[in-house]
Design goal:
The protein is α/β, with parallel strands linked by helices. Helix content is 46%, strand content 14%. The protein binds adenosine-5'-triphosphate (ATP) and magnesium ion (MG).
Length: 203
């Protein structure tokens, strides 16, 4: 047997083993229901990942609702796309801008409550296959929204409904309630070396 042949032979054996492991894991996952996902951490990629899931869901003609809690004045590309090309998607934006711009706690709380009322309806509506709560973690962190009530609504959502929660600082209570938690780690970000936020990449 040549070197190349024995390499191929070893590769085939390793892949067979790997396949057996993967097949066993697939076999063991026998629960079919909606999934709650938390995307948190200080790195870039939380909201864009959530919108990636929106696209996945739309690929299957699923019904999707997106509620955005902190929103700058600039609409980002994914929001423009949904507005212009996906009339079937329910999109609600808090629209007050960043808290450090509004500097108005009472006004922000009022808007957060109004936005939550929309989210709560979606989370109780079994026609929605996927609900995105973008940047809601800040509303909890600032205590603009009662954490207990948010957790309860996520817990009590329709059995088949999936929900994606994004934002930095998603705490332990939220982590407990959801099924999947991913922390996006900030290793390096272009902005820190003076590169401007880029259309189509950052917004
Ligand atoms: P994205 O929307 O690109 O997926 P994100 O949702 O993970 O990012 P946010 O905290 O919501 O991150 O911030 C959104 C904006 O801030 C984006 O323009 C993103 O590039 C930028 N950003 C994210 N993380 C960092 C960071 N660590 N340093 C500087 N800018 C960041
Ligand atoms: Mg985000």
């Amino acid at each position: 047997m040549t070197d190349e042949q024995s390499k191929n032979e070893r590769h085939k054996k390793a892949m067979e083993k790997q396949k057996a492991k993967v097949d066993a894991r697939i076999e063991a996952a026998d629960t079919e229901r909606g999934v709650a996902v938390l995307l948190t951490g200080n790195g870039k990629g939380k909201s864009s990942s959530a919108f990636g899931m929106v696209m996945r869901a739309l690929g299957y003609d699923h019904t999707v609702g997106v509620v955005q809690f902190i929103k700058g004045e600039q609409l980002s590309g994914e929001e423009l796309y949904l507005k212009n090309h996906c009339p079937q998607v329910t999109l609600y934006q808090m629209g007050t801008g960043f808290t450090w711009n509004t500097q108005d706690r009472t006004g922000d709380i009022r808007e957060a409550e109004k936005t939550w009322a929309v989210a709560e309806k979606l989370l109780a509506d079994d026609r929605y296959d996927l609900v995105v709560l973008d940047e809601i973690t800040y509303m909890i962190a600032y205590k603009y929204l009662d954490e207990g009530k948010v957790l309860q609504a996520i817990k009590n959502r329709p059995f088949e409904q999936s929900v994606v929660v994004t934002g930095r600082g998603g705490g332990s209570a939220l982590q407990e309630v959801v099924d999947t938690v991913s922390e996006v780690k900030d290793i390096k970000h272009a902005f820190k070396s003076g590169i401007k936020a880029r259309k189509g990449v950052d917004f």
